[in-house]
Design a protein that fits this description.
18 strands, TIM Barrel, 2 domains, 4-stranded parallel β-sheet, globular, 13 helices, alpha/beta, Urease, subunit C, domain 1
Length: 429
């Protein structure tokens, strides 16, 4: 069916476009963008986008879908349902499943499950090393042939510098980016939150910012040596920002992401031993938060990815030191990012670029654009929709969200993948 999306503000960072236009979808692709009233309505489903933003489909390049192996936390179906409910038309899923996605068979299984789910597009990320154990490299050629779009041992940093060098050289052969979880395990050790005044107050072992920063420096140096495509995951500190800014200023083609919790929360969220605020890297200080915001404004951090990490009560309803790291974010990521837009700390174009255009570009896959001929992956956003986060309405199986009860302004109201409406707010249905 043809779709005609009328009366919306089209925001397309791929073409620096922010204009009121009508958009025509035919055969799953963008067929036309014209001035309001220029495209005939006859024979088409007309979607009124008056008062809404029409954006290229949001793309989260760092999520954990838990399938195979931990389906009690999340499945590919529930995870992608959470994605489209949050406005995301595509996600890249990390390989730390059970078994680890270090073989073509696991990659194909993920893609088959995603196809059956029929929600968001899923782009598997393969493991850098066999079993993500940091001992031997996975077979990158087989993984790419099966459908992997990047490589990471996320959650298990590659401590061996020579192995990481070889991984970068091998990945370059197949034009696959390395997504690096930067953590020096000797420095982070058994820390459970940011090392600082709050950890001292709570009597909890801290993780210094240096644990992240020294590994970022190492991997940037190795990327310069090898010429590999490097993407730094979940940046959390002002020091990390400074190192990445310097590298980009020197012309190194690195990309980098942060997550909404790193520009929204500080380590004070842990007070009361709140396990939903236990994440890795940990929540940092107000100075770090301000630095992260500045880095999004100037493009040092080019991507926002929520690091959606579902856990059940079995892993979270424990004493703080024993609880798992991670929070869920697919259904709050857009709303939290729009807080920056409403506060004029980020332009709308910058926000959509970080949530859509840049993630697709970083991975070298389709998406992030409303150009004619592109797949019709589209998110309709009501910037003024006021709502309250309620984890009981989430599509995700898990509830480990520190934002429950928060009032937010701005929400996706329709998600379109390949020209098909896969989710719309009930009031629109």
């Amino acid at each position: 069916m043809s779709l005609l999306i009328k009366g919306g503000l089209v925001v397309d960072p791929s073409r620096h476009l922010e204009d009121p236009l009508d958009l025509l979808v035919e055969k799953g692709k963008i067929a036309a963008l014209e001035a309001p009233g220029q495209i005939p309505e006859e024979g088409r489903r007309v979607i009124s986008a008056a008062g809404l933003v029409v954006a290229p489909g949001l793309f989260d390049m760092h999520v954990h879908l838990r399938e195979p192996g931990e389906e009690y936390k999340e499945t590919i179906y529930t995870g992608t349902k959470a994605a489209v409910q949050g406005g995301f038309t595509a996600v890249a899923c990390m390989p730390n499943t059970k078994p680890v996605n270090d073989t073509a068979a696991v990659t194909r299984m993920i893609l088959d499950q995603a196809k059956d789910a029929g929600n968001a597009r899923v782009y598997p990320v393969g493991a850098i090393s066999v079993g993500s154990q940091g001992q031997a490299l996975s077979e990158y050629g087989d993984l790419k042939a099966a459908g992997v779009v990047a490589l990471s041992d996320d959650g298990h940093p590659v401590s061996n510098a020579m192995l990481m060098r070889r991984a970068m050289e091998y990945a370059k052969t197949f034009d696959l980016p390395i997504i690096s979880h930067c953590e020096d395990l000797d420095l982070s050790a058994d820390g459970v939150m940011h090392e600082g005044a709050i950890s001292l107050q709570l009597g909890l072992k801290g993780i210094p910012g240096a644990a992240e920063e020294v590994m970022i420096y190492r991997d940037l140096t190795l990327a310069s040596l090898t010429g590999a495509r490097l993407h730094i995951a979940h940046v959390s500190t002002a020091g990390s920002v400074a190192i990445i800014r310097l590298a980009k200023g020197m012309g190194l083609g690195v990309t980098a992401e942060t997550a909404p919790h790193y520009f929204t929360l500080t380590d004070e969220a842990v007070l009361g031993y709140n396990t939903n605020a236990k994440v890795k890297p940990p929540l940092r200080t107000e100075m770090d938060v301000q630095s992260i915001k500045g880095a999004l404004r100037d493009g040092t951090l080019d991507t926002i990815a929520c690091d959606h990490a579902p856990h059940s009560s079995l892993e979270k309803d424990l004493e703080f030191t024993a609880a798992a790291f991670g929070l869920i974010g697919l259904e709050t990521s857009l709303g939290l990012t729009l807080k920056l837009v409403h506060a004029k700390e980020l332009s709308l174009l910058q926000a959509i670029e970080a949530l859509s255009t840049n993630p697709a570009r970083n991975l070298g896959v389709v998406g992030g654009t409303l150009a004619v001929g592109a797949p019709a992956d589209i998110t309709l956003i009501d910037l003024n929709r006021e709502w309250t986060v309620d984890v009981n309405t989430f599509a995700s199986k898990s509830r480990n969200c520190p934002f429950n009860g928060w009032p937010l302004k701005g929400k996706a109201v329709m998600t379109i993948v390949g020209g098909k409406v896969v989710w719309e707010e009930e009031s629109r249905g």
